[in-house]
Amino acid sequence: HDAEARRGHLRRAAEAVEQAVADWPCDRLVLAGPDEAVAGMTEHLAPSIRRMIVGRAGVDVSASPRVVLDAVLAVAASAERKHEAEVVEELRQRTAGGHRGVVGLEETFAALARRTVETLVVSEGFSAPGALCPSCAWAGPALRLCPVCRATTDEVVDIVGRGSRAYMEHT
User: Fold this and answer.
1) Phi, psi of 63, rounded to the nearest 5 degrees
2) Helix (H) or strand (E) holding 54
3) Exposure of 169 in the CB half-sphere (CA atoms within 13 A)
4) Are 101 and 66 in contact (CB under 8 A)?
5) Which pTM does this prediction carry?
6) Taking the CA of residue 79 as centre, how many other CA atoms within 13 Å lie in the half-sphere pointing to its CB?
7) Dihedral sign from CA coordinates of 43, 49, 54, 56
8) Which of 65, 100, 133, 160 has its Cα between 20 and 30 A from that of 153?
9) pLDDT digits over 85-128, tens only?
10) Can you name the residues that pair with 33 across neighbouring β-strands?
């Protein structure tokens, strides 16, 4: 009887997780709770939800919301670092093998102008001066005239931040 009640509880918990994901769509999920309970509940999740799990935070059932939040944030930060490292490694492999990928400021902005960028990777804190076209959103090295539409460009101190934002707004 206890085992049946436990399975029912884990099934209801899984349903609550699935409903939360339906109500608040996300790409990645961190589960928190006692290790045994989280493992048991995970078995009841739909495969599509299980694929979203990036980590588990083992916390006691009586843990305060702050303790749970801190544990989840630590797991999420670790998962984010791992994801970023995977993206950078994929970019390195693509560029080394001559496949779709570019490295460097001018090459990147040329790919942005062609609208061929799938994933944009920028080193944290990186900035560079350049120019931004107010007419067509071209961004790149400091040129007086836009090479795309020939409009007069605006000089910007940080083309990396401004240019990538302008590109995203025009796609």
Assistant:
1) -65, 145
2) strand 53-58
3) 12
4) no
5) 0.68
6) 17
7) negative
8) 100
9) 998 888 888 888 777 788 888 888 888 777 788 888 888 888 88
10) 58
